[in-house]
Specification:
Number of domains: 3
Order of helices and strands: HEEEEEHEEEHEHEHEEEHEHEEHHEHEH
Number of helices: 11
CATH architecture of the largest domain: 2-Layer Sandwich
Helix content: 25-40%
Number of strands: 18
Largest sheet: 5 strands, mixed
CATH topology of the largest domain: Nucleotidyltransferase, domain 5
CATH superfamily of the largest domain: ATPase, nucleotide binding domain
Strand content: 25-35%
Structural class: alpha+beta
CATH class of the largest domain: Alpha Beta
Distance between the termini: 43 Å
Length: 347
């Protein structure tokens, strides 16, 4: 009878997970299988008992539409845990989903992507949530490092790699060399802040109250960082509640108006990119002239944002392949080859 070597047998039955625990979406990578789950980071619970009724996409459908006894909310805000118990319940739900509800057998090891500006208290909250959800061991990796690895950058080489990761709650900008972060800056501005800016703009200009889901749709369909002849003609019908009369109303919103609403948020992102460039060592700066800037995260998909950053910095800018999954793919690569990427993990 032939036996598998112990290491191969362990890998074959491995339940190990890499998780991008994002403000907007949670993505789960299973070792040796790839991405197995991509769900909104939303939980619906009973108000009195905190019993979880739904998580992920089905819970997101309930946002803003729940009766008095049910609360649908995002347990993460600005890239960190805002509600400890609900985050634990959400992680547990997703672990069961990817492992077909084998509740007793599954005690996976996890690598979780976290913002680089996370405090020790916030990092401990992430680890404890994952442990209480059933993990046997939890390691963390900064999101810009994971995004750079997932985007295919040669982070192990002694040369400069510039990554801009724009998530739902945070924007992470980092210079990476030799599997370590040379300089990093994190600001709590991202896709959610863009949505809130659109909500406030429509409220201020039209006395119309819209939800963040509607604002997100506006941003995706007609939002742009730069205006040209084509995009300037774009518009869409927006429905909401009139704050004066209290009845539903429809308006036509144009792309230039959305651009105006997003200006402040976009300026914050460009400013943090400038700060990182100013703090880059000269030898690494010379590498950036050729290598340029790589963008990841859902926020990088805002139309013409890469062109605007290129215009403001004078450097080539490109959006990574599959920008939404760069962090989880990078964490997954670390999970698959943890000895090689040991230095990339957080202490």
């Amino acid at each position: 009878m032939r036996f598998f070597p112990v290491r191969r047998l362990f890998n074959f039955f491995s339940n190990d997970l890499a998780i991008d625990l994002g403000t907007a979406n949670t993505v789960v990578y299973v070792r040796n299988k790839g991405i197995m789950l991509n769900e909104p980071s939303v939980v619906a619970v009973k108000a009195q008992t905190n019993q979880v009724l739904a998580a992920g996409r089905s819970a997101k459908e309930m946002l803003g539409k729940t009766p008095e006894g049910i609360v649908a909310c995002r347990p993460l805000r600005d890239g960190v845990i805002a509600n400890f118990e609900l985050t634990e319940s959400m992680i547990r739900h997703f672990i069961r989903a990817v492992h077909n509800d084998r509740r007793r057998l599954v005690q996976p090891r996890m690598i979780i992507g976290v913002p680089s500006g996370i405090t020790q208290v916030e990092k401990r909250a992430v680890r404890e949530s994952a442990m209480l959800a059933g993990a046997s061991d939890v390691r963390t990796i900064t999101e810009p490092m994971a995004a750079a690895i997932g985007a295919g950058l040669a982070v192990e080489e002694p040369s400069g790699n510039f990554i801009v990761d724009i998530g739902g709650g945070t924007t992470e900008v980092a210079i990476i060399s030799l599997k370590s972060i040379v300089f990093c800056r994190s600001v709590r501005v991202g896709g959610d802040e863009m949505d809130r800016a659109i909500v406030q703009y429509v409220k201020r200009k039209y006395n119309l109250l819209i939800g963040e889901r509607t604002a997100e749709r506006i941003k995706i369909e007609i939002g742009s960082a730069l205006l040209d002849a084509t995009i300037s003609q774009a518009s869409m019908e927006v429905k909401g509640r009139d704050l004066v009369t209290g009845v539903p109303k429809t308006i036509i919103l144009t792309s230039p108006e959305v651009n105006e609403a997003l200006l402040e948020t976009i300026a914050s992102i460009i400013e943090v990119v400038r700060v990182a460039l100013e703090n880059t060592p000269p030898e690494l700066s010379s590498d950036l002239v050729d290598r340029g800037i790589v963008m990841a995260g859902g926020g990088s998909l805002l139309k013409s944002l890469d062109a605007l950053i290129a215009k403001e910095t004078g450097l080539p800018v490109r959006v990574a392949d599959d920008p939404l999954f760069c962090v989880v793919n990078g964490a997954g690569k670390v999970l698959e080859n943890i000895d090689f990427y040991q230095d990339a993990l957080m202490v």
